[in-house]
Every structure is written in structure tokens, then in C-alpha cells.
């Protein structure tokens, strides 16, 4: 081929070489994970440029995430001295944004139009529905949001949607109003970015022809996850849109050629409208004669690859591809079981540290999880161990809006003059305090040179009464929480602030309620196990402004074996003698954790992300955490075959991210939605080849180290043990914690026995009568396995479930 002695073409296998040097025709590369699809796509761009077949401006390359786009530009820049920034390489949204910025007038947008993310979009819809008195029981905002996004993905404006029934008619009406509101405010949502650029291309012949002439080569990675509109957009740019088809062969220019690259087994966005069928449509509509398969995997050894292949073979409806590797078996896939999510995180941190000691770069280590909510425990553990990390996609826990609201109330309890917090929640949840009143207050505070809080008393009229009410509420909360534990304080504040009620009333507030419950968990563990003492040693002293907190309980000479109740309620600053309340300490922790602790750009950091966000990426070592039924596969998909197959593809993506080392980990219990849940390991383990796996027992700490006798060993499933048995199990728990934690954490006093025995009959409000089968744990961790004839066997946390003996 042209330039066949170019070093670019060295190190390609024959199929890859053929793909890189394809003539300028439409083509499809369909191949499994790690077979070099992205590498081929990038190399092809370089080769086209180097051989002078196209100028940088003639390339349009689309990838799925910003991280992947960056990666592509980096790889390209390493191959050729070319200004990659000027090239059209990016995500669909990124490229459409660029296009609309260039043609904002024609697109009827203000030059500085702002982009609404999904959350902003939802708030905008809610605001509008309130304004127009739309019944949000009948038309939940989130459903309306899906409706609007779906319409846009199908290229439909309000006047084009078929009004099948009264319900749809109403939704169309809201869609129309929403569009008007966005237009008025000069904002566009993600769907609008795509749709508006599509329409501009469709309706404006000169613009369309300009870009058709310009983009000689259109290359799309991860094609299996394109949706209808994205595919239509590509057709438009490559002369296959409706207008071009009408004019038949009369196109005044030869349209550019399209190279689509994908893997049907990695289609993981069906839930967001991706159409794997676009691949077959592409072959048909573009008369694709060249289809290239790549069958050699260059990423991983055969243990990892065999695992991936065996897993995905359980799916039906596959296009069918083979993958082999010449790398030999490589390391086995390590499987790790932990008693609790907390232990899983601790184990993970230890393992990460070991990898780093063994000269692995941190950015070559990825921690993957199925849902964003799982990241908190891991983030905290990494944070406490001072391991730099970076979270991709999704907000970090302490940056989520509802958490920030809750923290603002808590801050105001500590410091009434915190104006930022004051403004954040003075009218949240909404209590009829208008912008006008707030302005008045701000003026008064400015004039008097005092805080907003202090200026309230000088404010008269309705504003004074309303805001005065808010301040009074804070004062009451402050009084009520005096002397309470951190957990009690937070629970009271969540309740009395109206936050819980607010999100409960919001039909879409379930996630946020979950996060608020998670905040209580975070505080709880901050005080009891992970946080309080440990932060004290893990944080550099100067971050805390002087010596505050620099003394851990252990170094203050407190016997680590004392029960929690005997610990002093606050920590004493050795310099000033001042005490810091647990609340203040926790707020510091939250602020630091949300602030700049996250690794600086360019700093070598462990990579945290959902499996979805990891698509297309690769790392030396990959941890897939939370491999439990209900988490992965996700509980929403377990009863539906199609959804389960998507979960399996997601697992396939997760496994195939690893180059050298893969860990699959799961935990027997997990704090979720504010309570301990008992999980069994994921069904996906049954689908992996046993020979490729290595089951690693979690490090069993020696708990004989002065932790009180009678420990019967680890997290034993000591069914039928009496109440002393629970106490020992609890002791073992703490011993384990103590070994991980530094300084050791005192064991908690075993709570009094709940009096249950195996074989007893009990009554539960929801499940009715049942029989106790197994009892485990003690105190807050006590749990029972109960057989309810009408509801099956359930694990119940006894500190939460209300059971009566019958
Ligand atoms: P995914 O489906 O996960 O997106 P992919 O098919 O895009 O994977 P790449 O990311 O392009 O695969 O390649 C996987 C790894 O294999 C990369 O590290 C790449 O550099 C390497 N690789 C690809 N082809 C070769 C080759 N011919 N020789 C050596 N290494 C190769
Ligand atoms: Mg790829």
C-alpha cells in the first residue's frame, strides 16, 4: 500500500494493516475487545495524513467519552507532528457543540449559549411544570424528561410527535413549553446539541455541502452504541441524508467515506437509546462491501480473555467473533471475598499500595463499579490512606447537590455566619422566600457590615418575618442538637430542615434520599471505624490549620480497647486546649474530601469510574468491585432477559479492560440505603472458567492480639450461636478493623442480646410470620435469616427490622 514502508505500519498484523490502508470507501470493522480497533482507527488517521490523502481539516473522528477522545489525540500527536487540537476529534456532543458555536446565528442561538446537564434539565422541567400547574403525579418530571430526550433522539420536534392520546398530547405541550423556556434562557440540553446540528445540516444546503466536501474521512469508534439521531447525523455528513438521497446521484461532489468500528458484545447503552442495529443498517445503507474482522487480542493474557469469552458466550443474539491471544495465560484472575464493603475497600487500598510499591503507576490502576453510589466507601478508604485518586464521570459524593444542602445546614449549626451556606439553604427546601427578600437582606448586611444571619433582625416586613422564621428554625435545631451524637445531629437536621420531606415528596427524589442516608453512614463510620482517629494521622497537619486533630486517640494515651462509649466526645487540640466537636471534625473531613484532595490534573492517580465510563480504556490492573447479585447484575435487570444480557455485556467490558491483572471482588454485606444488606456473590462467577480464577481468601488478621478472648474466628457463619457467640463474632470484626486501621479502633460493647434463637417463630409487619433459621453478628450488626412462608427466605438486620416473638 501507499507509504508501505512507513514506520506507522510496522507492528500491525495483516488484518490491521488492511484496515489501516483501506481505499477511500465505506467500511466496517467488527471485532472483539482489545483487538486493536481504536489503534487501527487512530493509525489510519495518521496514515491518511502522512500519505497526503487528506489534510487535518478533512478528518472527523468520533469517540464515546472525553477521556477516549483525549487518548486518541495523544496517540495521534505521538505518531505525527500535527496540531491535533485543530482537528475535529471528539464526542458527538463535543463536536456538535463546536459546530453550533461556529454557526450559532444560523442555529438561532446566542453566541454564549449554555449547556444544561441532565440534572439541570430536570430542574428546568420541574420549574416549568410548577409554573404551568402541571400535575406532577400524573406527569412525573423525570418521565417528561425521558419523553423529551426520546423525541429529540428520534429527531422529533413537538409539532412532529403524534398525539396518540390525551396523555401524550399533554407531554407534547410540556415539551413545547420547555423548548420555549430553553430558547428564552439561551440554554441547550445534550439532546438539543445533536438535534439542532442535525437540523441545521438538513435545512441548510450550503452548510451541509460545505461539510460534506470538507470531511473526506469520517471515522466512528464504538459504533455499536450510536443512537438513531447520531447515525442520522453521520448519514447527513456523508451524503446519505434524505436531501442527498432525493437528489440521487446528482451530488455535486463525492461524499466522504465512513469507517465504522465496533463490537456488538460491548453495546451497553441500549437503556439510553443506543441501537446496535445501526451496524446492520450501516452495511445496507452504505453498501458496505469491506468488512474487516480482527481476531487477535493484544491486551490481555488468556486467563483474562478466556474469562471474557466464557462469560459472553452465555448471551444469545451475538454476531459472533473469535478472539485469541498469543500472550500465554498471564496472571490468574484474582477473586476476593470480604465480610463488609468497608473491608473490601481496605483490602483494595492495601493491594493498590502493594502494586505501587511494585512499581505500577497509579494511573495504570483502575477501580470499577457498577453504580456511582458504590464509590463513597472506596473514596474514603483511598483518601484516608492518602492515595491520590481521580473519579471520572458522576459527581464525587460530597459534591452532590443534596449532600451540599445537608452540609450547609450542618455548617450553619456550627457557624451561623457562614453566608454561603446561608444563601444555599435559606430557601431550600422552598419556603416562600423570594429573590427580592434575599436581596434586601444582602443590602442590609452590606450596610451594617455584618453577616446575613446577623442582619435578619434589622429587616422588617414580609422579608423579615420569612427569613426570621428560617433563622429561628436554625436556632431551634442548634439547641436540640446540643450534646447529641453526630449521627443524631445529622438525622435531626435532615428531618427538621425539611430536606427529607422535600425529597420524599419529589417522586424522583429516591436517589437523593439514598445519598442522604449515605451521609449518615459516612458520619457513622467517620466516628466509629474509618474516620475520626484515622483522618487524624492520615491528613497532613498543615491542611488542618495548625495542630488541630493531629492527635489520634491512641497517641493521646487512650486505651484502644476501651468501649466507644468511654471515648471522649471530642478531640483536644494540644496547642490551645480547644476541643473540636465531632460535627466540626466531620465537616472538615467533608470539605477536604470534596476539595482539592482529588488528584491534581497530571498527577499520577488511581482511576475510579463506573464500568460504563471505562469503555474503550485499558489499565495494567483493574479491580471490579461489588460483584454481587443485585449490584452487578443490577437488581433492576435481574428479571428481564434482555436487560440481563446488557449487564453481561457490561461485565464483558469490565473484564476486558485489564492488561495484566484483574481482581473481581465482592462483599457479604454492604451498607446501602442506610442499612446493612446481605449479598450473595454475582451469578457471573458461575459463568467464568474455574481454571482461570484464583480464589484469594481475604487477609485473615490475627485477632488474638489482646482483643479479648473468645473470638471464634473471622466472619464465621456460626448459625445457631447463642448471644455470647454474637459478641465474639463482633469481637472478630473489630479485630479485623483494628489490623487494617491505624491506630487500632476500640471494639464496641456488644449490644444486649435481642433474645432470638434459631427455630423461634417471629412476626414481621411486612412479611408476616416466619421462622428464624440462622442468626449472625451482634449489636448493630446482628442479623437473622428468616423463612417467611409467604415471602421466602430473607436476611434481616435486627437493629432495623421490627420483629416480635410469637
Ligand atoms: P476495545 O474494544 O476495548 O475498545 P480495541 O479493539 O479498541 O479495544 P485497542 O485499544 O485499539 O483495542 O488495542 C488494545 C491494546 O492492544 C492496545 O494497548 C494496543 O496498543 C495494543 N495493540 C493493538 N494492536 C497491536 C499490535 N498489532 N501489536 C501490538 N500491540 C497492539
Ligand atoms: Mg477501542
TrEMBL record:
Taxonomic lineage: Bacteria, Pseudomonadati, Pseudomonadota, Betaproteobacteria, Burkholderiales
Source species: Rhodoferax koreensis
Entry keywords, A to Z: ATP-binding, DNA-binding, Helicase, Hydrolase, Isomerase, Nucleotide-binding
Pfam families: PcrA_UvrD_tudor, UvrD-helicase, UvrD_C
GO-annotated molecular function: 3'-5' DNA helicase activity; ATP binding; ATP hydrolysis activity; DNA binding
BP-aspect Gene Ontology terms: recombinational repair
Record's keyword annotation contains ATP-binding: yes
Annotated binding of ATP, by residue: 31-38
InterPro entries: DExx_box_DNA_helicase_dom_sf (IPR013986), DNA_helicase_UvrD-like_C (IPR014017), DNA_helicase_UvrD/REP (IPR000212), P-loop_NTPase (IPR027417), UvrD-like_ATP-bd (IPR014016)
Similarity-based family: Belongs to the helicase family. UvrD subfamily.
Designated name of the protein: DNA 3'-5' helicase
Domain UvrD-like helicase ATP-binding, first and last residues per copy: 10-301
GO terms under cellular component: cytosol; DNA helicase complex
Entry's EC annotation: 5.6.2.4
Catalysed conversion reaction: ATP + H2O = ADP + phosphate + H(+); Couples ATP hydrolysis with the unwinding of duplex DNA by translocating in the 3'-5' direction
PANTHER family, per database record: ATP-DEPENDENT DNA HELICASE SRS2, UVRD / RECB / PCRA DNA HELICASE FAMILY MEMBER
Domain UvrD-like helicase C-terminal: 302-616
